[in-house]
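Suppose you are handed a protein chain with no further information: no name, no annotation, nothing but its sequence. What can you learn? This example shows the usual starting point.
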Amino acid sequence: MTFSRTAVALTGSLLGLAALTACSTEEEMKAVDPAVAEDSASSAPSDAVPTPVPAGEVRTNGLVTVLDAGEGPQMCLGAVAASYPPQCGGPAVEGFEWGEVGFEEASGVRWGSYALTGTFDGTAFTASDAVPAALYDALAEPEEQPLGAACETPGTTDTAKATPEDLDATLAAAAALPGYATAWLSGSTINVAVTEDAAGAETALRETWGGPLCVTTVEKTDADLNEVNQELQAALGEQLLTSGSFAPDSLDAQVVFDDGSIQEWADATYGAGLVRVSSALTPVE
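A reasonable first move is to predict its three-dimensional structure. Written in structure tokens, the prediction is:
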């Protein structure tokens, strides 16, 4: 998927939570068809998006890749291509020293993972401290919590009708429901979100699934969120690092830096709670 939210495709071999969408990269965004980009730009919100710049020191949220392909170190805040050597780009990093640990070098490219602290002027990052991955305390990072069940007590009718084949058939049936929004797994529970007639949806799904099932109602369909995501591309531009949906009825958007003003803009534009903005750089407290 490139910068859009698509219906989730799950198979019987999937044991855990399935991501609702994938996240696009800056490179993918730049590869969008010009006609599509023009359409997105024409539908983008008219109000100007804030472009905040931090007043003091900031730090990266955990480890980021620092890469030098011959033009000086860059801080890769977005996706990193899984090649050897890797490929990525981002703000230039001034005042950075590689040190004796924490980097690799191949084909004229040097890179490593670091937790950086410094100042950011909106274009370049000036490092005051760089902790390599080998010395970084990963336990300090909060663990991402998987998406749980949509209801407290998932209903079960016939555990014998809960095979991998039954799961596949049920997910296919869910995608064909009127008002289908999305679906995900939490353990052995199938969770389905629709915009209308949850009771009717559950009745239909019980024809193929007897295991734990939760059906919930949301306001936005997959297509609705995809439209909003396209608008975010055009409106946020290079400020946007990744976006996608990992929970029903909402979008997650990570930007380079937000002091709260981009979140306020998103709330005013799309309604509170629809777009959840996170910042790759956070102020040092």
